[in-house]
Amino acid sequence: MLTLALIGLLGGLITAVSPCILPVLPVVFLAGGTGGKGAERTDPGPGTGVPDGPRPTGGATASPAVLTAPEPEAARRPPRNRRPYAVVAGLVVSFAFFTLLGVTVISALGLPQDILRYIGLGLLVLIGLGLIFPPVERILEKPFARIPQRQVNKEGSAFALGLGLGLLYVPCAGPVLAAITVAGARGEISADIVVLTLSFALGTAVPLLVFALAGRRVAERVAAFRRRARGLRVVAGSVMIVLALGLAFDVTAAIQRSLPDYTSGVQKRIEDSGAARQQLSGLYDDSNKELSRCEDGADALRSCGQAPPLEGIDGWLNTPGDKPVDLRSLRGKVTLIDFWTYSCINCQRAIPHLQDWERAYKDAGLRIIGVHSPEFAFEKKRSNVVSGAKKLGVTWPVALDNDLTTWDNYRNRFWPAKYLIDARGTVRYFKFGEGQYDQTEKMIRELLRQADPTVALPEPTGRAMDDLTAGRTPETYLSNLRIRGYVGTPLVDDKPSLYRFPKGPLPVNKLSLDGTWTAGYEHFTAGSDARLAITYRARNANLVLAGTGKVTVIVDGKVTRTVDVSGPPTLHRLTDDRDPRTARLELRLDKGLEAYAFTFG
């Protein structure tokens, strides 16, 4: 159980710094810096030791009561702003409780599935109005008026704000949160699940509390904030109302989709490690264990057992008359099962690839079925899924797996996840999470050829027709877990290390490093004297780069150009020839530049 708690704690820490929680960070920061109503005063007031009533002005003499009954220094000192703790405590309590027990409570009371989301949005708007209009805040604090401690009473609205944020908190889900969500949805609450939930919530709280305390410190230390406390509260309230509107109309999702999932590598290493899989798989039964024969994103097709049926489905979208699809009716076709949910940012980023594959391979025998397995209660409402699917351009059949029965049948642990089923109904490949789209497409093409050796397939999606065909150098990720064709000094994960090019010529489609590099899951970061070499065959070579600096491009020993890099990850053209050729490409990168992936055309 200690190992399970540690996995939950680390999973929560990673989740709390992922891009999916960015929309709540401004609110947490500003809420930590906006003290109670007393923070707006510069003169004595209630609770400062000076009685209410008329105050002396100019040279007037103070009343004897004031002069003969001085308050001790501690009484005159303003109370410590505990709003950061109240906000984070409310968020963690709300998120943990309703993630684990929300489905049970809503079902028992017969309430709509998205009621919690509406409550959260309403609380966020009310707290925002309370910061802008003090009379509204006084109304919100009334439920806490009976608490004898005055300062605890003042933090009531902050705790309520945290409760509202907890209902709107939609983090990127990995195996840990998936295990908690599945257990809560099925009402299977065990001691292990409770420990996992509490440790996950605690891990989530730590980074958020640091952010809230930073907001408090800025407000306390920066004179401009102290002088404009009233204005700061109005700004904070406005931000909360804008966030509520953005969440209500799904505006924040567009921002999140544009950001790279910079925590996915660390999350996968911890939550999908051997120890984590052993602990988390112990929370379920032994059904369909044959799926364990296959590994995530394997480089070759495997036999992973018969595809489990699509069971426990509450309804269907995008089928004639919304009738169900039976996998047995798809024998002779290649089927891609995509586990997703419409509010999951990772899932949204994967959908364009599914759209490309359906357009390219539907006539060749590919069928896509989306299994919508909700992470949160509001995702169970059919109208929400219909609206989300329409916005995202999902046109293939979608099964509503509201009880996560099919999710369990496939022993799934991730949003999104893709399973490929061959023409005989056997699972041959699966991919958890984002990435490796070229690998998945390669497996689709291979299965289509196995199903019909005479099939005529189009060019791989996103690649222009040229003379290279199979001879062109494939897309190459600069990732310590996904790199292909690397030769030279063994890679060291996530630490600056010194590398050397191997002696002799570099074979075609092989890549090597020289100088100091940090090899990470998402990208390689250049250090001192960083060089990179690859021998490729293509018309042109391109590399996704980020940071600020220059890259010197050397082709077959001659400097051909210098590339200026500035900003977020962007594709840069390195070479551009009229005809395909084989060449040795060497790059010299300034320190701090990040290299993500090579593509060739």
Multimeric status of the protein: single chain
Largest sheet: 7 strands, antiparallel
Please state the overall shape, judged from the principal axes of the Cα atoms.
Answer: globular
Helix residue percentage? 40-55%
Unreliable parts: 36-69, 149-153, 270-284, 463-470
Structural class by sheet pairing and helices: alpha+beta
Mean pLDDT: 75
Number of helices: 20
Rg calc: 29 Å
Strand content: 15-25%
> What is the rounded distance between the termini?
51 Å
Question: Number of DSSP strands?
Answer: 13
Question: What features would you describe in this structure?
Answer:
- The chain is of the alpha+beta class.
- The chain is built from 20 helices and 13 strands.
- The strands form two sheets. Strands 7, 8, 9, 10, 11, 12 and 13 form a seven-stranded antiparallel sheet that branches.
- Helix 2 packs across helix 11 and helix 6 packs antiparallel against helix 9.
- The longest helix is centred in the middle third of the chain and has 31 residues.
- About 10% of the residues have low confidence.
Topology (elements, then pairings):
Layout: H1 2-15, H2 25-33, H3 64-68, H4 73-76, H5 83-109, H6 115-132, H7 134-141, H8 150-154, H9 156-168, H10 175-186, H11 191-221, H12 223-227, H13 229-248, H14 251-257, H15 264-271, H16 274-281, E1 316-317, E2 334-340, H17 345-361, E3 366-372, H18 382-392, E4 398-400, H19 405-409, E5 417-421, E6 427-432, H20 437-451, E7 476-477, E8 497-499, E9 511-519, E10 524-526, E11 530-555, E12 558-589, E13 594-600
Parallel strand pairs: 2-3, 3-4
Antiparallel strand pairs: 1-4, 2-5, 5-6, 7-13, 8-9, 9-10, 9-11, 10-13, 11-12, 11-13
Helix pairs in contact: 1-11, 1-15, 2-5, 2-11, 2-13, 5-9, 5-10, 5-11, 6-7, 6-9, 6-13, 10-11
